[in-house]
Design a protein that fits this description.
The chain is mostly helical. Helices cover 64% and strands 2% of the residues. It is built from 5 helices and 2 strands, in the order ββααααα. It has a two-stranded antiparallel sheet with strand order 1-2. It is elongated and about 95 Å long.
């Protein structure tokens, strides 16, 4: 495994080659693509994953917990009167319970991985953001020197972006605030 800055350069190294320059693919992009491929392949192997899950009427609402469903299945299996009604397909219902019981830990794990990756991104972006603001603060002081006019464009672009975002947050907060 390489460092965080490792890249896979897909550009041509021959100076005489007139092939178009392609973007550089980072190690993180390769890891993310591999993760997506593995999860997609595993999901495709799940029976019914690609089925149409639209439900007409009330939509998806679980009226009772799985424990109640299992109790009703046991009652239907033990009672010829309930089995004769034909309201509940015992085999299909047991299959549903087994499906949920088997995949609940997998779903929990995938959600846990997603939460962890999101937290990692947020923490890294927060640290990078603090460092960027500190550097911007230094650039504001450095740009006062007449010998550093090349930085003015960068400082002005950053200032405009920060102002645009701040104004957007202010407008959004005003829209969400209850009018009295």
């Amino acid at each position: 495994m390489g460092t965080a800055n490792e890249t896979i350069d897909s550009k041509s190294t021959d100076a005489g080659d007139s092939a178009p320059v392609t973007p550089t693919i980072t190690l993180y992009q390769k890891l993310a693509s591999a993760m997506i491929a593995v999860v997609s392949e595993a999901a495709a192997a799940v029976p019914g994953y690609g089925d149409d899950l639209s439900i007409s009427g009330k939509g998806v609402r679980k009226p009772v917990p799985p424990e109640v469903i299992a109790m009703v299945v046991a009652a239907v299996e033990g009672s010829p009167e309930l089995a004769g009604v034909g309201q509940l397909d015992v085999r299909e219902t047991r299959d549903t319970l087994q499906f949920s019981q088997a995949f609940r830990p997998a779903v929990d794990h995938l959600l846990s991985v997603a939460r962890r990756l999101t937290l990692m991104m947020d923490v890294r972006e927060a640290k990078a953001g603090r460092n960027a603001l500190n550097t911007y603060s230094i650039a504001l002081r450095v740009v006062r020197n007449p010998n550093t006019t090349h930085l003015i464009v960068h400082v002005e672009n950053i200032r405009a972006e920060l102002r645009r975002r701040r104004i957007g947050r202010i407008l959004k907060a005003k829209q969400q605030a209850p009018e009295t």
